[in-house]
Amino acid sequence: MREVWVIDAKRATIWVHRHLGAQGYAEVFEQGGDERVSPMLAPELALSLSEIGVRPLAG
Prior knowledge:
This protein has a 3-stranded antiparallel sheet, with no helix packed on it. The protein has one domain (3-52). The radius of gyration is 12 Å and the shape is flat. By secondary structure, it is mainly β. The chain has strands at 3-8, 13-21, 24-31.
């Protein structure tokens, strides 16, 4: 897989893993719920979790 997104629904964040190689993913970063992220192969599809209604769960 070139790119994997892991959504932490409890915290409303996305962990993005890109560029899989022999040592794992070369690029791993976290995006907050209001930060927009887009897939490498379709950058025009940028979105944020808050745009699709995902909010952090209350304690």
